[in-house]
Structure formats: C-alpha cells, structure tokens
Amino acid sequence: MFKFNKIAMAVVAGVALTSSGGAFAQQKKIGLAVANLQAEFFNMIKQSVEAYGKEKGYTIVTVDAKGDATTQVNQIQDLIAQKIDALIYIPAGATAAAVPVKAARAAKIPVINVDRNAEGAPGDTFIYGQSVPATTALGKWICEQTKGQGKAVMIHGQKGTTPEVERTKGFTEGLASCGIKITQDQWTERWAADEGNKIAQDMLQRDPSVNIIIGQADGIALGAAQAVKLAKPANKVWVVGFDGDVGGLKAVESGTLDATATQQTFTMGRMAVDAATALMAGKSVPKDQPTDAKVTTKGNVAQFLKAHP
Residue 168: what are its φ and ψ, rounded to 5°? Predict the structure, then answer.
C-alpha cells in the first residue's frame, strides 16, 4: 500500500509539473515590433510569428511603427513596461535603431533581430536573408537577359538599413560583371509601391533610354512596373524586385515583373520564435542565422506560389 501511494504521488507530481510547465509557457509574452505592416514582407513575418507563437502557447503582442523610428522607440518602451519576456525586433530605420536594443538589454529581455540589425547594438541573434549573394545572382541574370547592353537605374529601400546596404552592394556587383552601370539612384522611405511608381516615372522622364529598373523590394518594383506601363517605352524595360512576396510572385507569373528573389519569409518568423524560446530558457543561440533567397523567374515561380518557404 505504501509503495502504491509513493507511485501515485509521483504520477500526480509529474502531472502537476507538466501542467505548470504548460501554464508557464502560456504566461510567456513575446513582443513583436515590426517596421511597417504596409509591406507584405513584414506582414508575412508577422503571420508566421503569431501562428507559430500560438502553437507554442505564447502571447504575441505586435506593434507597427509604420516606418517611423521615434514611434517604434516609444512602442518598445511600452512593450518593456508590459513585461514582455522576449523582443522580436525589425527596426523601422537605421536612425535610433540601437535605442530599443539597449533598453531591452537593461531590462534583461533577450532581443531577436529579423531582417535588419541595429548598428552598434546588435540583438542576441540576427535572422536574415542573404541579400548580397541573391542580388548578385539577380544582377548576373539581368546581364544574361540583356546581353550586357543598356542603362540601369536603382530604386533603393530605406537608406542605411541592413537590406538596403546589402542589396545595393549585390546588385551593383552583379551588373558590373557584364559592365552595366547604375546611372540613377534614388531612395524610398517606406519601400512602397507608390514611391517606386513616382521615382520610376521621374527616372524615365529624365532618361527614356533606360532599359533596366531595379527595385530593392517587390513593392517598389511593382510601382516601377506601373510607371513603365504608363510611359509606353519603345524598348523593352526589364523590372526586377526582391523578397518574393505573394504579390511579387504573382507579378512574375503574369509577366508584370521579370524576376525577383524569394526569401524564406515564413521560415524566418518561425526561426525568430524558436530563438526566443531558447533565449527565454537561458540557452545560447548563434549570433547570425542567415537564410538564402532564390532567384525567381517565370520558369520556377510556380513552386514558390504553391509552397512559400
């Protein structure tokens, strides 16, 4: 009888531990600070983090800076006041990007940076797409299509952010492999289609002989493609983007965009939650967690539309 009671007590204790572990997981709160939910790329990361976080039993509190760094600093201060257990952070810009990281560190909250890092104050881990090799490959693809002939213009993302810097480097190097030079550059504030449209219109008016437009994100490129359609140029104008958003992939499928590079967007969101799980448990994670991006054209776009990575 005594032996039975010992066993029964052990079973009850085990159940209690399991239950308390589940309750402990459910009590965990992760803050997700997003740069700009108007961008489909960031929305896809948000969907991934929220869905996977729910599977893990976490409460996910999402805030949208709408591209404004000051707003984001205030939002993250509020998240810290709510006693979040981890912060998944996509900086709204290069300016003041380090401030939230330092504030979270002071509160002993682990920080997982996604897509963009903070200069001088990196997070505990950085999850990102490898923009340089992917954009270099896209630049070389353009060289093949144009046989190295023509003039290229580049519409950048937000100046100084990690992806903007890396995509500028990669596209420039890729095009240089066949001697094509960037003849005009202009930066956007929100990586948005309306900005891409207006900038591309201005570029084409300044030089109607442009035959290559590079948008550093699919939204920018889609806006540029509309500008090309409106301009009705006599020559073929190649328009490429980056990210592999669903809208961008559909545009490649229809021929509106000539190419993009598909990032592992949903995978990055899940990786961020896994990193938060490990850090909240006091475990170490790699400082850098790169993912690849695949050059996407009409020939292979169907596989990405069927199952986005």
Answer: -60, -45
In the numeric block, which tokens belong to residue 231?
């301009």
For residues 242-264, one letter each, b for 16 or more C-beta atoms within 10 angstroms of the residue's C-beta and e for the rest, the string is bbbbbbbbebbbeebbbbbbbbb
At 145-195, the pLDDT tens digits run 999 999 999 999 999 999 999 999 999 999 999 999 999 999 999 999 999
Distance CA 92, CA 70 (A): 9
* pTM more than 0.70: yes
Which residues share a beta bridge with 261?
Answer: 295
- Ranges 8-17, 179-188, 191-200, 272-281: which has the least confidence: 8-17
Helix, strand, coil in percent for the chain, rounding step 5: 50, 20, 30
Nearest to 222 by CA among 247, 190, 204, 187: 247
Q: How far apart are CA 183 and CA 43, in angstroms?
A: 33
Is there a contact between 268 and 127 (Cβ–Cβ < 8 Å)?
yes
Element (H, E) at 156: strand 152-158
Distance CA 309, CA 131 (A): 16
Contact present, 125 and 275 (Cβ < 8 Å): yes
